[in-house]
Amino acid sequence: MIVLGVLLIAGGSLAVAVALWSSSGSATFLGVDLGATTIFLLGLAAGLALLWGYWLVKVGARRSWRLRRENRQLREQNARASRRDGNGEDPAPL
């Protein structure tokens, strides 16, 4: 998720940068003449890609953090159970 989010952010940022620096007073995008509606829709798509990418990065990071926390808790529980057992092995399931 995080990688896809970063790719979407990069793609959206690249589209915005190309649109800003490739036009020289006329409405062109990558060498193609565009109308006002098309320019608006390209800007909207780039903005949505940026927002969607940010959202994916945020959700992916939150998920990774939650999984790391759960794994740490399980390791701690396993260590406590091993100490209670006394012989270093996992106790028999109930």
Give an overview of the whole structure:
- There is one protein chain.
- By secondary structure, the protein is mainly alpha-helical.
- Helix content is 76%, strand content 4%.
- The protein contains two helices and two strands, in the order αββα.
- A two-stranded antiparallel ribbon has the order 1-2.
- The protein starts with a helix and ends in a 9-residue tail after the last helix.
- The mean pLDDT is 78.
Mean pLDDT equals 78
Unreliable sequence segments:
none
How much of the sequence lies in strands comes to under 5%
What is the domain total for the residues? 1
Helix/strand/pairing class, anyone? mainly alpha
Gap between N and C termini: 38 Å
Query: How do the strands line up in the largest sheet?
Result: 1-2
